[in-house]
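Cell division protein ZapA: structure, please.
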Amino acid sequence: MSQEDKQRITVEIYNRKYHIVGEESERHMQLVADLVDQKMNEIHEVNKQLDTSSLAVLTAVNTMNDYLKLKEDYATLLGSIKKKED
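Here you go.
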């Protein structure tokens, strides 16, 4: 996909505007931004003393942890399906 074909949107995450360019639909990119914003606000409610940079890193760590758990669950499910097919 060429640079001209990519979607460009402006989103708000944790009260800051960001310009995002990507290959996904605008709807998808907005959903991602909304989820990041939601996660940052959730973490902020528990850790009000965190500065924005620390909050962003903690959000990334939590998100990757969730991603890895889902990836492991997916692999387990695929393994179960494969065993049933054999």
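Notes: Residues 52-85 form the longest helix (34 residues).
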